[in-house]
Amino acid sequence: MSVELSFGEKNFIQGGIEQNLRADGRQRLDFRPMPIETGVIPQATGSARIRLGSTDVIVSVKAELGRPNSHHPGKGKVVIYVDCSSTVGPSFQGKKGEELSSELSTALQKCLLGGSGIDLSSLILVEGKLCWDLYIDGLILSSDGNLLDALGAAVKAALSNSLIPKVNILPDLAADEEPEVDIIDEEYTQIDTSSLPVIITLTKVGKQYIVDATLEEESQMSSAVSISLNRNGQICGLIKRGGAGLNPSVILDMISVAKHVSIRYIATLDSEISTAEASSAS
Amino acid sequence: MEFVNLQGIRLDGRRPKELRQLCAEIGVVSKADGSAAFEMGNTRVIAAVFGPRAVQNRSQKIANRALVRCEYSMAKFSTGDRVRRPKGDRRSMEISLVIRQTMEACIMTQLMPNSQIDICLQVLQADGGTRSACINAATLALADAGIPMCDIVVSCSAGYLNTTPLLDLNYIEDSGGGPDVTVGILAKMNKVTLLQMDNKLPFDTFEKVMQLAIDGCEAISKYIREVLLENTKQLEYRRGL
């Protein structure tokens, strides 16, 4: 995503951030409005679409029956994969978007799955033999900065929207036999997403840091730190991007700012998700 | 398998000569120069157009007309089972090519020499007829981008199952083994620009099925025209004319 800015525009963005009034009227620690739609992909187990300004992402969750990893017989599997659609811009056609896709996929896996955000043992059906595999697929339709936070929020919304069918496991199973299952229609369990962390990216421009940077603001950043925090204020993952080095004390300060922001952010996200769920149910 | 029951009703409750519910929206991708979403029943695609702009790759520059590029991709969650194919496989390449040729036929490329137009198509849900839905979405997106076109291209498919010609096949009917005729027409000039069929069919039946597909195209073109007119009215209203 190349942004071409003139000298004056760059100055305007930097000066605005310095004075706590950004180009779109927000303060440094304000998010853009975040409308959420859930259940946008009917054939998925759960799905959600989030728009942050012009940033537009869809996340779908598909649950498939699989076999647990032999090293972790008591745990299900969760795979996160992000795809960058060519509708983001012609510079993402073909394989050119893959760099960004894999960067975001790894970042999401680190931030969301690291701190036991999803209870993997709840996905197990028969220990060592049968479990649910959750495939979480993100698709970026349009990008205006802050993709990681938007994807993190969309994953949370899609997981809360997911209904995993209940299954009947036929008893009297010999040790080496494959288990037989019956999927019960119309009976579902929900995934517990209350401990799933949220991702907050602080972008450092000049001496200040901002949340929810637009594409133009991101082009002016010296570095960015994405911090994933859960409801209790614990850090579940952290990624630093951007070239410039950061003083360790600055990083600690950024974490405390993110912690402060996360309280309000989680509350907003929760209310948006419940509104979306209510409107998709009716 | 019975695709049409004795009362003449198809699996999804339609009559043989009935289209699925159409829904179009213009301007869904704000960063693009032109964009549109097009739904045909459960098939849902998004098209974004970038350009006309300077050619990125100089060796592809054409001195007397515009270069048209097209990319078709399917979302991982677009089908019932998760798509495991990588981006840019054979099938998507073929569809990209077909759509590019169809759109090139209506864009007045000679008016924009030395420039490039990119059409990006993203399938969100695939339930048969993605090819047609993509062409319809691309037409709307090109119109939204203000790119000069000599006519509106619309596309629709028709098939032949249980000795009945069927309009606008869904996924189950498409994989039912019968022929699938995809037609693209220039609506006003009444010319066929795209014609594909993938099975054997007697000549007189083919004529019937193709005529049915053309009738479907005409219905879609009427709808697309309405959507474009409504969009233009909205733009006019916003400019205060």
- The count of domains of chain B is 1
What's the average pLDDT of chain A?
Answer: 88
How helix-rich are the residues of chain B, as a percent range?
25-40%
Count of helical stretches of chain B = 4
- The geometry of chain B reads as globular
- In DSSP terms (H or I, runs of 4 or more residues), the helix count of chain A works out at 5
Strand content of chain A: 25-35%
User: From the alpha-carbon coordinates, what is the Rg of chain A to the nearest angstrom?
Assistant: 20 Å
| Gap from first CA to last CA of chain B | 57 Å
CATH superfamily of chain B: GHMP Kinase, N-terminal domain
- The assembly state of the depicted protein chains is heterodimer
Percent of sequence in beta strands of chain B: 25-35%
Structural category of chain B is alpha+beta
CATH superfamily assignment of chain A? GHMP Kinase, N-terminal domain
Strand segment tally of chain B: 9
**C-alpha end-to-end distance of chain A:** 39 Å
CATH class of chain A equals: Alpha Beta
